[in-house]
Amino acid sequence: MTSVMVPYYAQPDELPCPLPTKQQIHSSEEIFLDYGEGRKVVGFGHNFVVKYGLNVELIEGENMLFIAQLKDTSVRAPKVYALYEDPKDEMRYIVMERITGVTLLSVWSSLEAPQKEAICAKLRRSMDTLRKLPSPGGYCSIGRRPLEDCMFWTSKDSDETESPVEQVNGPIDTPLNGPFDTEEEVNSAMIKKYLYNNAPRGKAVFYERALPKVLCNHPPVFTHGDLQRKNIMINRIPDIDKAGNVVDEELEVVLIDWEVSGWYPSYWEHSRAMQGCGRFEDDWHYWLGQILDEYLTIWAWTNMMFLELWS
Q1: pLDDT 10s per residue in the chain (311 long)?
Q2: Taking the domains of the chain in order of start, what are their residue ranges?
Q3: Terminal CA-to-CA distance of the chain, rounded, Å?
Q4: For the purposes of burial, counting CB atoms within 10 Å of the CB of 5, is it exposed (0-12), middle (13-18) or buried (19 or more)?
Q5: Would you say 47 and 109 are in contact if contact means Cβ atoms under 8 Å apart?
Q6: In angstroms, how far is CA 156 from the centroid of its own chain?
Q7: Are strands 253-255 and 31-34 parallel, antiparallel or unpaired?
Q8: Comparing C-alpha atoms, which of 272, 186, 185 is closest to residue 224?
Q9: Is the peptide bond before 7 cis (omega within 30 degrees of 0)?
Q10: Distance of CA 237 to the CA centre of its chain
Q11: Rounded Cα gap, residues 296 and 127, in angstroms
Q12: What whole-number distance in Å separates Cα of residue 270 and Cα of residue 292?
């Protein structure tokens, strides 16, 4: 990837119209997501969506620029027009393309099987392309930076020496969020996170004994990291002919929310996506198996750990 210097601004001839000012962004009345000063997503005009806030990570925009550099039509992310931080208030801004269409979540229940098949076939090609991207070295984000998944998150205000982490059979030499050279280091970091969240020490000892036998031999592959239907947009619902076949050649699938993307163990995409099935009230779990290779046994393990951490 060609390195991105932040602040980043697209060239004037790449813009559909002038970028919105900070004042225009904050005064937008079209609000898609609102977590106060931490994170907000708003629309501006017909061309822009802006994600901004104190907790917004600009690496999300860098990930989308990375995807754009692939110039591979099988993978589509919103175009990025600007990435910057205001030094006065430390608010960070990602100004991106406004995608025309609807989320897959909003229309899923109305789709027929051939339509789902057409959409998921496109998603399969997208995932296959992403998973072939070579790692810059181990398990990491672009630029061989730390991983952004919340599994590896700790408070920025906490000093690791003061955090409630006890060693389990020896110290962990790498930072909790990497980058990691080996899958063993990834496993150790997850156990450390388990203890950081004040989970039972006895269960952590069990995980330390069990995970090396279960979570092993999974190379780093590029992972979107949050493959839920709310993060998949389609430009239109595919047309079906009288025979029940999809005949729509203009269907476009766009992936949004690239905040946690990076090179994770090969099972990670499937395990995280399966968590988006919630209570398994529909057939999304089946179609995930058409989009991704399934790691069902490993999902059972990781799901148990995730639920214990955040339930």
Answers
A1: 666 889 999 999 999 999 999 999 999 999 999 999 999 999 999 999 999 999 999 999 999 999 999 989 999 999 999 999 999 999 999 999 999 999 999 999 999 999 999 999 999 999 999 999 999 999 999 999 999 999 998 876 554 433 444 555 455 555 699 999 999 999 999 999 998 888 899 999 999 999 999 999 999 999 999 999 999 999 998 888 888 888 777 899 999 999 999 999 999 999 999 999 989 999 999 999 999 999 999 999 999 999 998 86
A2: 8-97, 100-311
A3: 38
A4: exposed
A5: no
A6: 20
A7: unpaired
A8: 272
A9: yes
A10: 24
A11: 18
A12: 6
Q: Is the CB of residue 286 less than 8 Å from the CB of residue 122?
A: no
8-97 carries CATH number 3.30.200.20: yes
With contact defined as beta carbons under 8 Å apart, do 63 and 78 qualify? Answer: no
Specify the CATH number for 100-311; select among 3.40.50, 3.30.1890, 3.90.580, 3.90.1200.
3.90.1200
pTM of the model: 0.93
* Distance of alpha carbon 148 from alpha carbon 264, whole angstroms: 10
d(CA 209, CA 194): 14
Burial class (CB in 10 A: 0-12, 13-18, 19+), 218: middle
Residue 113 in 3-state DSSP?
helix
